[in-house]
């Protein structure tokens, strides 16, 4: 699915949170959304997910205005793993993953045909061993992987991930991003880990104060100048010894430059 974000703005209480944001995502690619705390990444993802309507601009998916689509049709195509996914419901892990099938059925019926899809989603997210556990008892990382499985069960054309690896250990971070890359689904992921972004994204979009300050191929965007400017961090960008992709070595933070 191709995504075009055209001059999108969103405000709350008279404060403009994101403004004039445009970006273009080619089908099947992974775009990393970077930027310091409060720069507007989650807000933009919420707009692209259809959870918030833009005050200006529009979001086109394969040429159709996302905010004018019927919610059910939108839910069949767009899956969103939010930063702090919670459920107050007393559900098992398998039942949480089954929620991903709701847009395709209209209503949830246990034991319906998609069993193979659910099993595959749980396998890809490495939670098959957790299927019968109560959601409420899971660790942060296990919950995050369960939410990925729910999103995959949804069989989306567009996958939106908000800091999807922040609870994962290093092995699961790499495995998670490898899985996401291998899906071939158009993906936009807000990431704080510049190393993961450099290793797994096709393109990067960097936000600062609610606007885009850089976008393009990883090697063009992830420069020491940008890291200093946006994060207040002194860093060197080197070539990864094995992959040759950009690899960040930080030296220190200029506290006075910290955003927020
Ligand atoms: N509903 C809201 N009401 C008031 N302020 C809001 C609301 N939603 C977002 N904001 C503010 O907008 C700014 C951007 O928030 P957002 O969550 O999009 O940032 P972010 O880049 O995802 O940050 P983080 O990296 O910390 O998750 C923040 O200053 C936040 O406090």
UniProtKB/TrEMBL annotation:
Alphabetical list of SUPFAM superfamilies matching this protein: P-loop containing nucleoside triphosphate hydrolases
Keyword field contains Transport: yes
Recorded superkingdom: Bacteria
GO molecular function, one term: ATP binding
SMART domains registered for this protein in UniProt: AAA
Keywords, comma-separated and alphabetical: ATP-binding, Nucleotide-binding, Transport
InterPro entries: AAA+_ATPase, ABC_transporter-like_ATP-bd, P-loop_NTPase
Protein name stated in the entry: ABC transporter ATP-binding protein
Source organism (scientific name): Nocardioides marmoriginsengisoli
Phylogenetic lineage: Bacteria, Bacillati, Actinomycetota, Actinomycetes, Propionibacteriales
